[in-house]
Amino acid sequence: MINNKKVVVVLPAYNAAKTLEQTYSEIPFDIVDEVVLVDDASKDTTVEVAHKLGIHHIIRHEQNKGYGGNQKTCYKKALEIGADIVIMLHPDYQYTPALIPSMVHLIANEVFPVVLGSRILGNGALAGGMPLYKYIANRFLTLTQNLLVNQKLSEYHTGYRAFSKQVLESIPLHKNSDDFIFDNQMLSQIIYKRFPIGEITCPTKYFDDASSINFKRSVTYGFGVLSTSFKHFLQRIGVASFSIYDNEK
């Protein structure tokens, strides 16, 4: 714990057997109280490795629910076990667990209720292996999103995120997509609720065993991002209303 706040790391896993142990071994358990792993119907031995590592909270989806569907289960379980601070860490080792203390301290000390690990702050994205087309798309989408949602984030597309309990309980996550666009819908909801967002520099790591969506799905994701941001803009200026910004069930 930090400042008497329970810290929970959630691992949204899919075919992460090769990288899970390395990721888990670097989690700073001097401050992290619990780990939740949600396996999204992996075709490898992710669940077996998780049991071997002694992860106490393991949930397995019998059918693949998608990246967003996995996160919904992660956050629901984290809140059920009393989390005050929740960090989403991908178990494919694309993001270093070494940043967890910095992210958690910012929330525990009430500096920010949301902290993102940005691969764009600094100059390491391309050097770390980010494909050029993804880097260009990232910069274009981020610029467009900042204009539409009235923010100044360096990146909206990182999968490394930390949240306070209050944030997770304040936004209707269940109304979001079960696919990759979930991440952007979630940030849009957070911005719409006027929660401040902090960012810290995160090293970029692309390698064979790290998960990544293909070009076709990246294009679909890109159009989904633009759609989400445009809806946010229309909602913000009061000319339209969309259910993902409505807390009513």
Helix content: 25-40%
Class in CATH?
Alpha Beta
CATH superfamily membership, which one? Spore Coat Polysaccharide Biosynthesis Protein SpsA, Chain A
Q: Report mean pLDDT, rounded to a whole number.
A: 94
What class do helices, strands and sheet pairing give? alpha/beta
What Rg is obtained from the alpha carbons, in whole angstroms?
A: 17 Å
CATH architecture verdict = Alpha-Beta Complex
In percent, how much strand structure appears in the residues? Answer: 5-15%
Number of distinct helices: 8
Number of strands: 7
Instruction: Enter the CATH topology name.
Output: Spore Coat Polysaccharide Biosynthesis Protein SpsA, Chain A
Strand order of the largest sheet: 3-2-1-4-6-5-7
Structural commentary:
With 249 residues, the protein is α/β, with parallel strands linked by helices. It has one domain (7-244): Spore Coat Polysaccharide Biosynthesis Protein SpsA, Chain A (Alpha-Beta Complex), CATH 3.90.550.10. It has 8 helices and 7 strands, in the order E-H-E-H-E-H-E-H-E-H-E-H-H-E-H. A 7-stranded mixed sheet has the order 3-2-1-4-6-5-7, sandwiched between helices. Helix 2 (46-53) links the parallel strand 2 (34-39) and strand 3 (57-60). Helix 5 packs parallel to helix 8 and helix 7 packs parallel to helix 8 (215-236). The two termini are 32 Å apart.
